[in-house]
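Hello,

I think I submitted the flavin mononucleotide job twice by accident. Can you confirm which output corresponds to this input? Input:
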Amino acid sequence: MISLCDVRESLTLGEIRFDMPREMTVLEGINSLRSVRKFKSDPIPEDKLRIILESASKAASGSNTQPWEFVVVRDARMKARLKEPMLRTWLEKLAAGSGMSQRMRDVYDDATEMLRNTDNVPVIIYCCIDIDRVGKSEEVRYASIYPAVQNLMLAAHALGLATCLTVHGSTPTRGEPEVKKLLEIPEHVKIACLVYLGYPAVRLGHPKRKPIEKFTHHDHW
Ligand SMILES: Cc1cc2nc3c(=O)[nH]c(=O)nc-3n(C[C@H](O)[C@H](O)[C@H](O)COP(=O)(O)O)c2cc1C
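Support: Only one job matched these inputs. Its output is below.
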């Protein structure tokens, strides 16, 4: 079985010390990854950030175009400025959406609190696609960034860090024009999503998902 210890052996990044459990396997990582929305203020060591980004860059992409661009934001003032359009548009969306279930409301309350706290999250990473690099076909675009984003989150998890993927700042109705302007992201680059990253301030259980029988079809629907 491939373990993260094997992954470590194959990384030539000098004297890096990991505080992940040595026995954590890839499958354990996949099966315990959660969206964490409360983070400690401790900064993220540069070597860990590097491994996380390198892991993202190993993902598949259409024709190996590797169209990803990551904007890593650590500056608290910049995070505060970015929060403004993202929070404003999110609150507008919430105000417009009536008839929400209690379950959705609970998730949205946590999501809103994390967004309000954006300036205190150690690192936020805008995951972007270079449209010029990925080619014209619409279906290949997002399919060429999300494998990298998942790698990024799994690598962070393996290193004892926590993440939460959001789509804040990823469309015009989510503040994308303002975010792109603040970050000086060029015209031909599209924000796909945003990942919050830090040491977890809470411990969450395993992911709650439907049993595979509910969505798996064999040979025909
Ligand atoms: C496309 C996408 C958009 C998401 N947007 C948000 C978001 O805006 N805010 C948030 O707090 N979580 C967001 N999430 C995280 C989901 O809410 C989370 O994955 C889901 O509730 C399952 O929880 P778990 O990952 O902890 O098992 C998003 C996840 C995906 C894949």
